[in-house]
Amino acid sequence: MATRARFVYTRRRADDDEEEEEEQEEASSSSSEDEQDEEEEEEVEGSDEEGVAEEEVAEEPSARKPPAAAAVAGRGGRKGPITISLKKVCKVCKKTGHEAGFKGAVYIDCPMKPCFLCKMPGHTTLTCPHRVAMEHGVIPAPRRNTNTSLDYVFQSQVKGKISMVKPRFLVPNQLECGNIKFHQRRVTCLEFHPTKNNVLLSGDKKGLLGIWDYVKLHEKITYDSVHSCILNSMKLDSANDGVLYTASSDGTISSTDLDTGMGSPLLNLNPDGWNGPSTWRMIYGMDLNAEKGLLLVADSFGFLYLLDRRSKERIGQPILIHKKGSKVTGLHCNPAQPEVLLSSGNDHFARIWDTRKLEPKSALASLAHGRVVNSGYFSPRSGNKILTTCQDNRIRVWDYIFGNLESPSREIVHSHDFNRHLTPFKAEWDPKDYSETVAVIGRYISENHNGVALHPIDFIDTSTGKLLAEVMDPDITTISPVNKLHPQDDILATGSSRSIFIWKPKNDSDDPTEERTSQKVKEYVYGSGSQKKANGKRGDSSDDDSDGGSDGKNKKAKKTRFTHTAKGKGKSKA
Q1: What is the DSSP string of 320-349?
Q2: What is the CA angle 49-51-53, rounded to 5?
Q3: From 61-65, 162-166, 283-287, 433-437, the region with the lowest mean pLDDT
Q4: Comparing C-alpha atoms, which of 552, 551, 544, 565 is closest to residue 224?
Q5: What is d(CA 398, CA 32) in angstroms, rounded to the nearest whole number?
Q6: Share of the chain above pLDDT 70, in %
Q7: All residues at 6 or more sequence positions from 453 whose CB lies less than 8 Å from its CB, including other chains
């Protein structure tokens, strides 16, 4: 018993000495008189603790105090022990035993949730069969002739427009140049000029319109007074390629002269200004019927408007083409039969209309989808196929618009269902592909590329569901939801965040010198410089939203010219 008493007494003294040293360090800035008082108090407390220790030892060994009681008894002493759990906790389902999130450049999703890619339970995204092979579960297009009499009549009208020899398909898989931070907000739409092959038009979330000659890198102009918010769609006038029609979330349609920046509003759905979200109408879908001279526009309440581009007046009354209160996300006129219209909306439907007999609930066909339909396009040559992009991670293909439209010919699983803070992903046909099978779309799920998470741009064979190519570059680490293929050249334009990039086919040469030279032709232009106003004076650029020309008067947009050119990595020429 005496031995145990000495042990406890020594342990208490050691603890007291440590406490005295800590308190002396905390009170080192106080006066010497306070230090003497504290030392005297500590000596008294130490003597009291000695007596308490001897009394505890005098008790029998079985009457030990529990840890909680010891913590209460040592109220003036050290705190209780801190426990650290090494169990894995998932941030998604809050259960233990697994983790979810990025590990390096690889994303691990929660095994307790359905697959993020195909939305089916039982496996994760890494082991999803659709990620291993995109064509998994896809029924290829039939090789035999299944045309009907209606198909032959339809094809006879466009037979002269389609070449019988399919050209060699070249994937623009090498980054040629980029316009870094050309826009002040994320890019929302892209369009190539029909006659000036090297000119690219772009719009952004702030309503700014950009014009860039990607061959002469430094030649670029921005008009920031065309719209006051998101520029959702743009179409060039086929009769006058110097006029651009633009649709915006500010509820206006504008006709802009690309040379002068003069804009005139054709339609304003919010003439009384902002009166709350219940009355504010936004315009997303827009297309041009060149034969009839009609501009077709759809708003965020499900209505379709017809405008005469010559008289610049509205024709008739708005027509409800989707569920009332639902947003119409896109419009597309059939290239072979322009009076046939395809609309897509967030009421989970894509619908086909005859614009000559437009009435509510008079759709020729309604194509059902699982979630919001981001876009719908007829095939670019014959107009005989339909390609839609849905938020359920599915790309749907209908091979024949006069066939059975109750179910698609194929469903291709693809990652594109994330829209928050991103421009919606849209699969688009390659306008140069005479077989009408190749489509391009950006991918949301990243891939591990030498330890860096990159988001590829996918080229897909819609007849089989196979992935033809995935395009990526280490210099582009952001997501690329906006992609546009050139109508004549093998060029791909990409809108990624606030920047624009141009891709061209890689030079397949056996000569290593030529290969190194081709890798060095990568040049960037940075979107920073002074702002040139319409009156010729220069001023500092501003990030504030500019007012759109919705007051019914012609308004000359502000113009910004950038002439600063910077060399990219490995640049070999000035």
Answers
A1: E-SSTT--EEEEEE-SSSTTEEEEEETTSE
A2: 70
A3: 61-65
A4: 544
A5: 90
A6: 70
A7: 102, 105, 106, 107, 446, 447, 477
Q: Which two tokens stand for residue 363?
A: 């759709």
What is the distance between the alpha carbons of residues 321 and 128, in angstroms, rounded to a whole number? 37
Q: Is 558 in contact with 225 (CB distance < 8 Å)?
A: yes
Side-chain-side CA neighbours of residue 80 (13 Å): 9
Contact yes or no for 410/139 (Cβ under 8 A): yes
DSSP bridge partners of 332: 342
Structure tokens of 378? 């007829």
Contacts of 473 (CB under 8 A, 6+ apart): 175, 454, 501
Q: Pairing between strand 365-368 and 373-378?
A: unpaired
Q: Which of the two residues, 35 and 266, has the higher pLDDT score?
A: 266
- List, in order, residues 6 or more apart from 59 with CB less than 8 Å away: none
Beta bridge partners of 433: none
Alpha carbon 404 to chain centroid, angstroms: 33
Q: What is the pLDDT of residue 497?
A: 93
Q: At what angle do helices 32-58 and 2-26 cross, to 10 degrees?
A: 160
Nearest to 359, CA basis, from 320, 330, 389, 322: 320
pLDDT, position 562: 37
The predicted model scores a pTM of: 0.74
Beta strands 394-398; 410-413: pairing state: antiparallel
